[in-house]
Amino acid sequence: MRAITFNGAYQYGEEADKGTLEAGKLADLVVLDRNPLAVDPREIRDIKVLATIKEGEVIYRRDEA
């Protein structure tokens, strides 16, 4: 995992701002309604994205209507 997180940030000289989970660093992540590693592989396509966060800002939040 380090190859696509810290090492990627390091290659671009951005390791001070991103690449590891630390207070004050930027984060890109998604919040899912289920763990894709714990569901039956046939159910992965049914997992819903609840939120997307890019550089610390919520850019998508699923409406529960």
Query: What's the overall average pLDDT, rounded?
Result: 90
Alpha-carbon Rg, integer? 15 Å
Q: Give the distance, in angstroms, between the N- and C-terminal Cα atoms.
A: 36 Å
Helices and strands, in order, run as HEEE
The secondary-structure class comes to mainly beta
Major sheet description: 3 strands, antiparallel
Count of discrete structural domains: 1
Which percent band covers the strand fraction?
A: 15-25%
**DSSP helix fraction:** under 10%
Number of helices: 1
Overall shape: it is flat
Given as residue ranges, the uncertain stretches (5+ residues, pLDDT < 50) are none
Query: Would you report the number of β strands?
Result: 3
Neighbour order of strands in the largest sheet? 1-2-3
Describe this structure in words.
This protein is mainly beta and 65 residues long. It has one helix and three strands, in the order H-E-E-E. It has one helix spanning 6-11; strands spanning 29-32, 49-54, 57-61. A three-stranded antiparallel sheet has the order 1-2-3, with no helix packed on it. It is flat, with a radius of gyration of 15 Å. The model has no long low-confidence stretch (mean pLDDT 90).
Could you name the key traits of this structure?
65 residues, mainly beta, 9% helix, flat
Topology diagram in text:
Blueprint: H1 6-11, E1 29-32, E2 49-54, E3 57-61
Antiparallel strand pairs: 1-2, 2-3
Write a brief caption for the model.
By secondary structure, the protein is mainly beta. Helices cover 9% and strands 23% of the residues. A hairpin with a 2-residue loop joins strand 2 and strand 3 (57-61).
